Amino acid sequence: MTERQSVLMSVVDVAEYLGKPVSWVYANWRTEKIPFKKVGQALRCRPADLETWLDRESA
Fold this sequence. Notes:
The protein is mainly α. The protein has four helices and two strands; from the N terminus they run αααββα.
């Protein structure tokens, strides 16, 4: 496992990766089923889960 794979992505990280505004991610993460998990009050996403989600969305 690389260092990047072991780090949980924040909403900002996911927005940058997707090329979307942070506000879009917050507004759409539930309806789009972006694979976030709550860590305390924060949303976090595993990079591998995001890749799997992207693969399903593009199919």
